[in-house]
Amino acid sequence: MILDLVRHAGNGRDEFLDGRSDPPQLARLPQELVDAYAEQDWQRVISSPRLRSLHTAMALATPRGLDVEADEEWEELDFGDWDGQSLFDLPEDALAAFHADPHAFPPPNGESWGHFERRIARALDRLLDDEDPLPTVVVSHGGPLRMVLSQVCGLPLSLCWALRIDHGTRLRVWLERGEVGLVGELLELQQPKAASPW
Predict the structure, then answer these.
(1) How far, in Å, are 13, 145, 194 from residue 197 at the CA level?
(2) Residue 92: partners with Cβ closer than 8 Å, 6 or more residues away
(3) What would the pLDDT profile of 176-188 be if each residue is shown by its tens digit?
(4) CA distance readout (Å), 173 to 10, 46, 116, 126, 166
């Protein structure tokens, strides 16, 4: 299957760890994304249920006459006590430890890295249940997109953290079930010129 994944449009909170928190969206539509992806032949739109993703997904789905399927599996990592907090208000050593080894140093009272891995793997695997899947876009967050690159493309976690995935970035991956799980590769990475930096 060829799958597109799009990180939601920016909402003015680049310095915050918004996982399950759901701050208000910007009033305007992400028109730059609608224009950038107007030629994509998507026939199915799936989204994280967080407003910032749903808002973007609806903007992409409406011109195509499609409904948006909200799927909790595509939510951002739950950052627990850090959720909704400014990065500048969090302890630097704890953040550095989390980025170095999220299995050993998860956010306090947050989702374990293992649970996050299994959740994204389930979401990807379900997409392959259809023998002839429709051209699909998933609108999600930076964490799930990086997890897809790690799981499907075999990129080391350190490289996934370092990879810049701006708001509105589109990843196109080839995905299939292999003998030992999901396999695939990154086919394309597109960043709209007007995207806001992470």
Answers:
(1) 10, 15, 9
(2) none
(3) 988 888 889 999 9
(4) 23, 16, 20, 15, 17
Looking at this protein, which amino acid is placed at residue 39?
Answer: E
Closest CA to 34 of 172, 148, 170: 170
Residue 196 binned pLDDT confidence (cut-offs 50, 70, 90): very low
What pLDDT is recorded for position 183? 87
Amino acid type, 169 = T
Q: Show the tokens assigned to 90.
A: 């969090």
Q: How far apart are CA 110 and CA 94, in angstroms?
A: 13
pLDDT bucket at 193, cuts 50 / 70 / 90: low
Q: Is 130 helix (H, G, I), strand (E, B) or coil?
A: coil
Rg of the chain over CA atoms, in angstroms? 16
Dist CA 178 CA 82 (whole Å): 36
